[in-house]
Specification:
By secondary structure, the chain is an all-alpha fold. The chain has one domain. Helices cover 54% and strands 0% of the residues. The protein is built from three helices and no strands. The two termini are 23 Å apart. The model has no long low-confidence stretch (mean pLDDT 81).
């Protein structure tokens, strides 16, 4: 299996602003009125640079 290093990290595909927006949209559209815990977590991750950098270290498909 060939591994492409540029595909290993979500940060290589998305910048931090785009990742923040994905968490914000997830909180607002997917979690609102469904899961207050996930709404709270995703909304706070969207606004926390340290947590966004941590999330950016995930492999593709895990964000």
């Amino acid at each position: 299996m060939v591994t492409y290093h540029y595909l290993e990290r979500v940060l290589d595909v998305l910048d931090i602003d785009a990742l923040s927006e994905r968490f914000r949209i997830f909180a607002e559209r997917e979690c609102k009125n469904s899961s207050s815990l996930y709404e709270h977590l995703a909304g706070n991750i969207a606004n926390d640079l340290d947590l966004l950098h941590l999330a950016a270290q995930s492999k593709l498909g895990q964000h």
